[in-house]
């Protein structure tokens, strides 16, 4: 009974110690994580961010087609589904590791028919053949003296949080990619509309030049030029069909559908939201890839602390109790059938040919790698935000300039047409003005497409929230 009381006392002390800092936690390296700059170079702020938004950033574009596409990406994209499965695996591993904090209890029942060799017996017995029946319960429990078991649980918890953040990053990445391609498709359709208008204008110009030529008031050169302009515009319009088709195919795959079963309808309702100026740098903490890198760093830190405790002994309580008998009828005959064994087991590392030291060095190097990876992810995050802010600033200036150019080109086309109608200018002047107007209209559409893509890129760079 004294041994039982001693074992229970050790167990109680171990349980109480789990509420304090363990050796694993104390020995886990902590070199500090790098911080983001005070503010961004392009349009940043040194202030603090407000409360997190819902994360449904696509709703700010006010486009029901885009909203349906975002739902399809989440529900049907196979890569997103695989990321969810990885999260499930990580939390299952957390459950397996967490079970090590508790005793392991198992049942043991057996029947054996035995025969002893008389030549090995020092004393003769009446029967060398006999049966043996056994019914027992076995239990074992490693006392977490140094926090190794607790540290392993914490490590897997960090890994599970990292897997969850990586899933969020995969989902954000695919949603952002789908949104960019969706807007590229919509603006490609708008470009096609611009070219279709130009084709109608050039068809009318060709008809007019043929009529003038038939009356002797025109020249074959003007007819040929009108035909050239029409065919060249048609070629560009036909090329857009290929571009739009490939974009739609890509969007279908992102939505988890076969291209033959998927179609993106045209939409003119969406609006590109304006992200407020003065974005604080602490928004980067909401990026899922940065949270994943941070949790991986914390997991590697715990693993390094665990590796150091492998130099220390391990104490395990083991016990077995039950009934046993040579006859089934006597198995539950009373205390004569009862047996038990109970006691501690101390495993002391003495010689492992340097394996424990090498494992400790490996764990330390893995932590250093995780620290550098975190720093790399942070720098990449800063660059992506800076690039997106710069893109939006410059694109806004370009768009304003392009609007003036488009208005001027349209005015020039009108003036050139009037001069041609009065006979004060050649048809070449009209063609040149029309060509310039078409190009400025298409450039304006391209800039709007790039603004939409840059806005989505900035939202992604900020973790989907601002």
What's the alpha carbon Rg, rounded to whole Å? Answer: 38 Å
Low-confidence stretches at least 5 residues in length (pLDDT < 50)? 6-18
Given the structure, what is the number of helices?
9
Instruction: Give the end-to-end Cα distance, rounded to a whole number of Å.
Output: 65 Å
- From the 3D structure, determine the CATH topology of the largest domain: Outer membrane efflux proteins (OEP)
The domain count comes to 2
Description:
By secondary structure, this protein is of the alpha+beta class. It has two domains: 18-102 and 145-312 and 358-461, Up-down Bundle (Outer membrane efflux proteins (OEP)); 104-143 and 315-348, Outer membrane efflux proteins (OEP) (Single Sheet), CATH 2.20.200. Helices cover 60% and strands 11% of the residues. It has nine helices and six strands, in the order ααβααββααβαββαα. The protein has helices at residues 2-17, 23-27, 64-76, 78-98, 148-214, 220-254, 288-309, 355-421, 427-461; strands at 44-45, 104-115, 129-143, 279-280, 314-325, 338-347. It has a four-stranded antiparallel beta sheet with strand order 2-3-5-6, covered by helices on one side. α5 packs antiparallel against α7 (288-309), α6 runs parallel beside α9 (427-461) and α8 (355-421) runs antiparallel to α9. The radius of gyration is 38 Å and the shape is elongated.
């Amino acid at each position: 009974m004294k041994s039982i009381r001693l074992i229970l006392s050790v167990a109680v002390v171990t349980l109480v110690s789990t509420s304090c800092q363990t050796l694993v936690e104390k020995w886990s390296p902590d070199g500090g994580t790098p911080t983001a700059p005070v503010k961004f170079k392009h349009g940043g702020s040194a202030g603090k961010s407000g409360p997190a938004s819902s994360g449904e950033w696509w709703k700010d574009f006010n486009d029901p087609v885009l909203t349906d596409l975002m739902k399809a990406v989440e529900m049907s994209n196979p890569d997103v589904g695989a990321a969810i499965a990885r999260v499930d695996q990580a939390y299952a591993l957390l459950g397996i590791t967490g079970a090590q904090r508790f005793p392991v209890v198992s049942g043991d029942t057996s029947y054996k028919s035995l025969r002893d060799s008389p030549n090995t017996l020092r004393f003769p017995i009446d029967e060398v053949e006999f049966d043996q029946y056994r019914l027992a319960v076995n239990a074992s429990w490693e006392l977490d003296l140094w926090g190794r078991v607790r540290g392993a649980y914490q490590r897997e918890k960090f890994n599970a949080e990292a897997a969850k953040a990586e899933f969020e990053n995969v989902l954000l990445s695919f949603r952002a990619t789908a949104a960019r391609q969706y807007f590229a498709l919509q603006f490609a359709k708008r470009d096609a509309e611009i070219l279709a208008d130009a084709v109608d204008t050039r068809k009318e110009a060709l008809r007019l030049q043929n009529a003038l030529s038939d009356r002797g008031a025109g020249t074959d050169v003007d007819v040929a030029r009108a035909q050239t302009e029409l065919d060249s515009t048609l070629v560009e319009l036909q090329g857009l069909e290929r571009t739009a088709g490939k974009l739609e195919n890509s969007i279908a795959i992102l939505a988890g559908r076969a291209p033959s079963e998927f179609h993106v309808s045209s939409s003119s309702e969406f609006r590109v939201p304006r992200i407020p100026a003065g974005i604080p740098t602490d928004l980067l903490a909401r990026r899922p890839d940065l949270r994943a890198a941070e949790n991986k760093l914390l997991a590697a830190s715990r693993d390094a602390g665990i590796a150091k405790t492998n130099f220390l002994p391990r104490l395990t309580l083991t016990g077995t109790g039950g009934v046993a008998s040579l006859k089934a009828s006597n198995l539950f005959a009373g205390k004569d059938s009862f047996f038990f064994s109970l006691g501690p087991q101390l495993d002391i590392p003495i010689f492992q040919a340097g394996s424990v030291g090498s494992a400790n060095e490996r764990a330390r190097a893995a932590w250093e790698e995780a620290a550098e990876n975190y720093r790399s992810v942070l720098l990449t995050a800063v660059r992506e935000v800076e690039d997106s802010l710069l893109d939006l600033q410059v694109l806004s200036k370009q768009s304003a300039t392009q609007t003036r150019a488009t208005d001027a080109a349209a005015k020039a086309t009108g003036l050139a047409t009037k001069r041609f109608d009065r006979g004060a200018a050649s048809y070449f002047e009209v063609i040149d003005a029309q060509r310039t107007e078409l190009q400025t209209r298409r450039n304006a559409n391209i800039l709007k497409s790039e603004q939409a893509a840059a806005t989505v890129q900035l939202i992604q760079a900020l973790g989907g929230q601002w």
